[in-house]
């Protein structure tokens, strides 16, 4: 939400030349969500609503712990609950805080047609600048994590901002501040990776052989990372993608097609112009009119001969 | 509509109105669509007030387009059926392009180029309509899966480029062949124009004594 200055941008949607980022010293930040420490209290969900002044509509109970049942324009982060029976027959309750992953290579930004409606700051945060958003929903198609939601009220797209407004003034995101178990950490991406390494070693000692960090390289890594006890099977966690990547369809649409189409249109326009110079207009001549008159008169003579 | 003496009716008044409604919708759809397709065209969104207005308007223009085009389709499809003359005409395309139409085999109300434009649009506009509905966020954003919408938006943009290419050909042909614009603005052509470009059509009118646009139009030649 916060519109930092353009000097802070490293990517800007629908922009052929992103202004050079002159703020080099910016550290890449990351939020680390340690799923193994989360108790599912939803304090982060409430803190997000509170800080961002969001009051999503009350929903019907859907028979699950998720509340509301899905992300929506007023719910930027959502606790998702999955029951999993492991190999030993133990029931595991896998609770994941869902929300924007702040991809290093954001599919939403790639798909967005409105200049500057989606930007990425030098610290890695992917932010929606709502005043530029036209509400087309392309970001929904671009995102590999099914995150953005379009508001039916103002037709603008919404998602987690990683509290860019708080981070911009040196505060941690609201969810991080509020988490009672320390399951959400925030800092430089390097520090968060180090910290995750320690946690993963601990989890492995406790018997979770496949514990690991979720920082998917297919999208260049993310600025929201998870510590998972089953990092070999991310999809156990309410469908977290195993190998998230920007769809090849989006790649064709936004990569290949754009220059080819432009060249095709230019070719057609130039071709028409060249033809008009080389061949000139196709005019009806006096001879054509004479031929036509002759045939019409003949037809009339025949017609009057018949009657 | 009244026509100058000794002219031939190329298009009925209904056709003219129907054609220009279709054309207006198409041009506005192209301008708004291109603005969303490529950043170099985004400034075109200002023509519609704002990006939000443009995004909201585009699909409704699309609905107008398909209805309006259906009207044109009903009026034109019969005269656009493919026949042997079209093959002969197409073989002489080089002469057509060189303005040597005297040497080109005669054709009916439409030539093969015009028929290609007609059938191209008749194919692409429904594709644009169906894919456009699928990506209409406001009403159908939740109706299909995201993957379906990814396919739809890719097809929509490719189909749109195809339609715009056909449209460029269509507009250029109308400017190149003098007298065509008048046929679509005022509805009439001179006998010489009809004889030069659509001789079989011209002869069918002369033989039936019809003023056009089709031999079965009842009124007799005015002279
Ligand atoms: C026939 C009915 C049509 C419908 C229902 C329709 C609908 C849509 C919708 C819903 C969008 C997404 C943006 C928005 O929500 O406004 C869109 C985008 C677009 N439309 Fe259409 N449209 C139609 C016809 C056309 C035509 C005739 C053209 C031009 C020849 C066109 C060109 C485009 C382009 C270029 C885009 C942008 C695609 C991209 O971003 O790559 N559309 N259309
Ligand atoms: S998770 Fe989706 S919305 Fe968030 S940055 Fe990545 S592509 Fe964009
Ligand atoms: S809805 Fe807004 S943010 Fe999303 S792609 Fe469209 S203009 Fe960009």
From TrEMBL, chain A:
Name the positions where [4Fe-4S] cluster 2 binds: 48, 160, 163, 175
Q: What GO terms are given for molecular function?
A: 4 iron, 4 sulfur cluster binding; metal ion binding
Instruction: Report domain 4Fe-4S ferredoxin-type positions.
Output: 29-59, 91-123, 124-153
Q: Which residues bind [4Fe-4S] cluster 3?
A: 100, 103, 108, 143
InterPro entries, alphabetically? 4Fe4S_Fe-S-bd, 4Fe4S_Fe_S_CS, FDH_Electron_Transfer_Unit, Formate_DH_bsu_Proteobacteria, Formate_DH_C_sf, Formate_DH_Fe-S_su, Formate_DH_TM
- Positions binding [4Fe-4S] cluster 4 in this chain are 112, 133, 136, 139
Per UniProt, subcellular location reads as:
Cell membrane
Which positions in this protein are listed as binding [4Fe-4S] cluster 1?
38, 41, 44, 179
NCBIfam families on file: FDH-beta
Name of the protein this chain belongs to: Formate dehydrogenase subunit beta
Naturally occurring in which organism (per UniProt): Nitrospirillum viridazoti CBAmc
From TrEMBL, chain B:
Q: Which cofactor does it need?
A: heme
Q: Cytochrome b561 bacterial/Ni-hydrogenase domain location, by residue?
A: 13-187
Q: Which domain of life is it from?
A: Bacteria
Transmembrane regions: 20-44, 56-77, 116-139, 151-175
Q: Name one GO molecular function term.
A: metal ion binding
Q: Which SUPFAM superfamilies match?
A: Transmembrane di-heme cytochromes
> According to its record, what are the GO cellular component terms?
formate dehydrogenase complex; plasma membrane
Stated membrane topology is: Multi-pass membrane protein
Mainly resides where? membrane
**Localization (cell):** Cell membrane
Q: Which Gene3D superfamilies match?
A: Transmembrane di-heme cytochromes, Chain C
Q: Which UniProt keywords apply?
A: Cell membrane, Electron transport, Heme, Iron, Membrane, Metal-binding, Transmembrane, Transmembrane helix, Transport
In the record, biological process GO terms are: anaerobic respiration; formate oxidation; respiratory electron transport chain
Q: Please report which protein family the annotation says this sequence is part of.
A: Belongs to the formate dehydrogenase gamma subunit family.
Which NCBIfam families does the entry mention? formate-DH-gamm
Q: What is this protein called?
A: Formate dehydrogenase subunit gamma
